[in-house]
Amino acid sequence: MEPGEIGDGEPNPNARSPSTPTPWITIEEWSGSSSTKLSRTAVLTATPSSLARHRYGSRWKQIWSNIIGAFVPEGFPGSVTPDYVPFQIWDSLQGLSTYIRAMLSTQALLSAIGVGEKSATVIGATFQWFLRDFTGMLGGILFTFYQGSNLDSNAKMWRLVADFMNDLGMLMDLLSPLFPSALILIMCLGSLSRSFTGVASGATRAALTQHFSLQSNAADISAKEGSQETVATMMGMILGMLLTHITRGHPLAVWFSFLSLTIFHMYANYKAVLCLSLTTLNHERSSILLQYFMQSGQVLTPEQVSRRESVFPFWATWRRLIKRKLLHEHVHLGAKASALTHTDMMELSGSARSQYKNDNYLLLEKRGGIHIFIHKQATPDDILKSFIHALVITSLTDKSKSLHTESHIWMDEHYPVFIAKLRSTGWGTERLLSRSIVCRAHWVHDTMNDKFK
Predict the structure, then answer these.
(1) Could you give phi then psi for residue 213, rounded to 5 degrees?
(2) 318-339: per-residue pLDDT in tens?
(3) Which of 90, 68, 98, 75 is nearest to 164 (CA)?
């Protein structure tokens, strides 16, 4: 019987002639955050009778990779912005400092309210603690009411302020045993200070998480940051308990440790916010970008602007004292129409008929500033354009007598180019980050009763 035949002469479908090649397949496994940062981890080759498997890299390397995966976002580093790593390093260090100091301040606070004292009553300590927490809750609500809409537009500044207020709250707790007659007042002030920290830190953290996200992975970044913070908390608790044990009964050692850690904490926070290169447009960043563009025709990168913008809240006040204002400090976005005088109305009437008849905003120069009146139907693009237009007028104040005419010529010729260059450099031009615009306006032509937008 010939090979490949069955007894009745039919061909055998499972038989292969000597010239038929043996089927096989090889599959490689690659791991990495992006197509340009991959490493081969395994190769599998299969034939009808066997499977060959070859792994690359040690088992310990794979275990370490899995451990790291619990603390960094999936796809790291390609799934986050370049400033993520330096920011998280400094942020973890300042967090570690905070938890160590928290042990010192909490010990002082518990001592102040009478924990361990025979004369202290449970109801008295409970009431003091309740009043402390109640003050903090009330302070958080008030702070949100007054500054909630401003936190997103100045995330770097408020991040720094939040940690400073936290330091101030801890200092109050540490001072509480020294002034028993004013204990409740000091406790409430400390709680009030920390309430600002909770609101500002939470809001700015949300803004920064969105900034770090490159692959719509904000939830993953937030979760992994929680793991990082948990580790820092555990280390801080251990070191804090050790430090409180060592410094117990030595007030000078307690104060030296607390002040040293506070100085390091503020330094780490400052370095952390300096690492951030935000790509959103707020008032100051828009002003810096426009000034440079009008001088050179080029647009700065987010990293370059980050080195030029201020992060301290008192810096703007200091500039005013030495009469150095940036362009955005002359601009008032969302001005109130109810505050207009008859002269202002007549000036706006002329502007509405001529320069701004096709715009959803009106600009009024008044007392050295540019007031922007936003139409009730204005879009985010209109708001950004109005703000840039106001900055252009401010920059031309000392160079031209026909501010509105010259600024319109500049906007028609250069504004589309400016926006296009911003986008190509990585800036987000979808909207302008600013306080909520609660005052808008609507206007009509005075003679022909034509509606302007």
Answers:
(1) -70, 120
(2) 655 655 667 888 899 988 888 8
(3) 98
